[in-house]
Amino acid sequence: MLPQQTSFFLKHQLATMAALFSSASSRDSHRSLMYHSIYSDRSITDDIFSVNLKNFTQQVNILKELDLSIVRFDEAKAGISITFDDGFLDNLTLAAPILFEAKLPFTVFVVSDYVDPAHPQFVNKEQLKKMASNPLVTIGSHGKTHRPLATLPLEEALEDLRQSKIELENIIGKEVSTMSFPHGSFNENILAGAEKLGFKKCGTSFPYPNQLNQDSVQVDRQCIYFCESKLSYKQKLEGKWDRLWRK
User: Fold this and answer.
1) Reading across the β-sheet that carries 79-86, which strands appear in turn?
2) Domains of the chain by range and CATH?
3) What's the pLDDT tens digit per position in 182-214?
4) CA 131, CA 95: separation in Å to the nearest integer?
5) CA–CA distance, 183 with 146 (Å, rounded to integer)
6) CB neighbours (10 Å) of residue 69?
7) Average pLDDT for residues 124-140, to the nearest whole number?
8) What's 93's DSSP letter?
9) With the C-alpha atoms ordered 89, 45, 149, 79, is the resulting torsion angle positive or negative?
10) How many C-beta atoms lie closer than 10 Å to residue 217's C-beta?
11) pLDDT tens digit string along 59-71?
12) Contact, 217 vs 89, CB < 8 A?
């Protein structure tokens, strides 16, 4: 573990211990998981949002062992949805084969400006097309420039989303009707504007379960971190962290 991660790790451990005394939430909700990059055992990263491939494989096995209903991000159904932010290449090369083998659907929110040879750590156009061709995969937008939208003038923020939607649709030849907010940055005006642009579901970084409401555009998501243990992962799936986050 790198020094930058130590403080976060200790806080995460304390939260895991506190969650032992929390009760599980009802499964009659939609809980969405938010991943970012998946890295191999040979790699080293100080990013708290990146998950080791071994741990990711273990987490997918836990989903299967618990016999949880895995649903698509854009479905207002009880169960767990799996999402990835940014459009990292390792979502295709490392995460996708594991999810395909398990026959689990997932959504990748792509930054359209990153779909470029200048950004080799992210999927390029051909790789994005390949990913989108699989029926288990939904491609969504993560903005055009990955800027925090709530810090921008409203018109500029919505134009960023509009352009990303058009660019991604031109690449994959399909409608892009889902998105997630870069850096979790949004407000009610941006949410309403995203809906007018044609986004039917918009992912946040609020770590709460979603009640089954067909009219809700906002979908809150639970982040999965680098230091997630078997115990903390199961706790999050069971909703034992919900009360901790609200405190």
Assistant:
1) 218-219, 201-203, 178-180, 137-141, 106-110, 79-86, 30-35, 221-223
2) 3-246 (3.20.20.370)
3) 999 999 999 999 999 999 999 999 999 999 876
4) 11
5) 8
6) 12
7) 98
8) I
9) positive
10) 13
11) 999 999 998 999 9
12) no
